[in-house]
Amino acid sequence: MSKGTVVLAYSGGLDTSCILVWLKEQGYDVIAFLANIGQDEDFEAARKKAESLGAKKVFIEDLRSEFVEDFIWPSVQANAVYEDRYLLGTAVARPCIARQQVEIARKEGANFVSHGATGKKHGIPVPVTPKAPWSMDANLMHIRWVRLSRAPADLYLMTKNPEDSPNTPDDLEIEFKNGVPVKVINEQEGMSKDSPLDIFSYLNDIGGKHGVGRIDIVENRFIGMKSRGIYETPGGTILLKAHLDIETFTMDKEVRRIKQGLGIKFSELIYNGFWYSPECEFVQHCINKSQENVEGKVQLSVFKGQVYILGRESSKSLYNEELVSMDVQGDYDPCDASGFIRINAVRLREHHRLQGFSSTKQ
């Protein structure tokens, strides 16, 4: 007799294939759910594999557009980067998959949901061999390779080696509205993209062509251990550089200082699996508010593994050329700085007076 029905977030890889077999052994009926979030996958082959391992039903859902609009775009608004380097491609995909998984569970009247768990292989075919002893996670945003020594040159799939990339840069203009890209133009190619999925896919192509977005890091997992990862995030890296530029151009200094802290917190919440938490909802609300005036166009060049900002323009710019000019007086009087200097000097004089007092007593 069945213990109930489980909707399994299934990929066809090692972890989810193992848990599918284990769930069947424990007496559960399994519905396999495959999310298309932009990975290079033979979905029909994965369907057949799930069925051969005992899945009662298999659902394949195309989530690429909502992945970009509902999950990648908020990460762009936040400048979400975990521990200063990781752009969260795997972590930000999980809440996208989980949302649809729960929806299927409700429609099918399932009792449980499940994800993968590493274990013994049970004779399940997996793409891991002694010659290639690593696992890979891929989606529209990135590819992650784990449990590696030094990466072989032929490992990378989304990005060219910068040394082998074109000798001519691609110059792009990215337009933002409310902190998210609404259009990308490549005048050299006569190319313009304006839907979220098309924009992100095109930036992946351009970034990949020029070897942008490769990192090799050790990161801190939520449970306390450190993990080695090699990542390719071409489109996300381009957008991070462009968004940082237009944000600084249009956002008040003190608002941005607070928003930077919120971005770090948002990144930690995503990494640790708290997208659907009240604190993450609150942080997202604050970040959304901060993006109301983040609009305009950023011109940039993508070349040999790098993204170079060329310029920016915005009707919401806080940059006042006359105010900062060395030639035009403007509204700022340099004499006003004298009081500012004296006030700040009070604290510093006291600090150094005490430092001097301490040193004389030693």
UniProtKB/TrEMBL annotation:
GO BP: any one term: urea cycle
Gene Ontology terms for molecular function: argininosuccinate synthase activity; ATP binding
Compartments where located: Cytoplasm, Cytosol
Domain Arginosuccinate synthase C-terminal: 134-349
One GO CC term on file: cytosol
EC number assigned by the record: 6.3.4.5
UniProt pathway annotation: Nitrogen metabolism; urea cycle; (N(omega)-L-arginino)succinate from L-aspartate and L-citrulline: step 1/1; Amino-acid biosynthesis; L-arginine biosynthesis; L-arginine from L-ornithine and carbamoyl phosphate: step 2/3
Main location: cytoplasm
Record key words, sorted: Amino-acid biosynthesis, Arginine biosynthesis, ATP-binding, Cytoplasm, Ligase, Nucleotide-binding, Phosphoprotein, Urea cycle
Keyword Amino-acid biosynthesis: yes
SUPFAM superfamilies tied to this protein: Adenine nucleotide alpha hydrolases-like, Argininosuccinate synthetase, C-terminal domain
Domain Arginosuccinate synthase-like N-terminal: 6-120
EC category name: ligase
Keyword match Ubl conjugation: no
Catalysed conversion reaction: L-citrulline + L-aspartate + ATP = 2-(N(omega)-L-arginino)succinate + AMP + diphosphate + H(+)
Stored Pfam families: Arginosuc_syn_C, Arginosuc_synth
Protein name: Argininosuccinate synthase
Organism expressing this protein natively: Sparus aurata
Gene: ASS1
